[in-house]
Amino acid sequence: MRVKAIQVIDQELQKKQVADFQVGDTLKVHLKVKEGDKTRVQVFEGVCLRKRGEGAGKTFSVIKETHGDMVEKIFPLYSPTIEKIQIVRKGKVRRARLYYLRKKKVIL
User: Fold this and answer.
1) Nearest-5° angle of CA 10, CA 16, CA 22?
2) By three-state DSSP, how is residue 57 classified?
3) Which single residue of 2, 62, 84, 102 has CA 20 to 30 Å from 42?
4) What is the distance of C-alpha 49 from the center of its chain?
5) Cβ–Cβ contacts within 10 Å for residue 33, how many?
6) % pLDDT > 70, the chain
7) Cβ(47)–Cβ(66) under 8 Å?
8) For residue 99, what are the contacts with CB-CB under 8 A and spacing of at least 6?
9) β-strands 69-76, 26-35 pairing
10) What pLDDT digit, counting tens, does each position of 31-59 carry?
């Protein structure tokens, strides 16, 4: 019975429409940020490093360069704080994990 409950929750969360992106794509992740009693949308633009997990636990990592520093964020795919995910540019890569970009400059 417990397995069924988890499957039902996974199916409900996966009804949310999400852009079909791959590792290596340049993404704009629109996040809802709550400040006091107001909410605003903040955009995080960078290259998708990895996708992992399955069901409601899917996550993806995005890396960007800001003022000479590399910033990497991990987002839950079905998070309610993610308003939308835009694909800016498709990437052509031969790896499933692009961890080598952590040491390089990422060109957007």
Assistant:
1) 95
2) helix
3) 102
4) 9
5) 10
6) 94
7) no
8) 49, 50
9) unpaired
10) 999 999 999 999 999 999 999 998 888 99
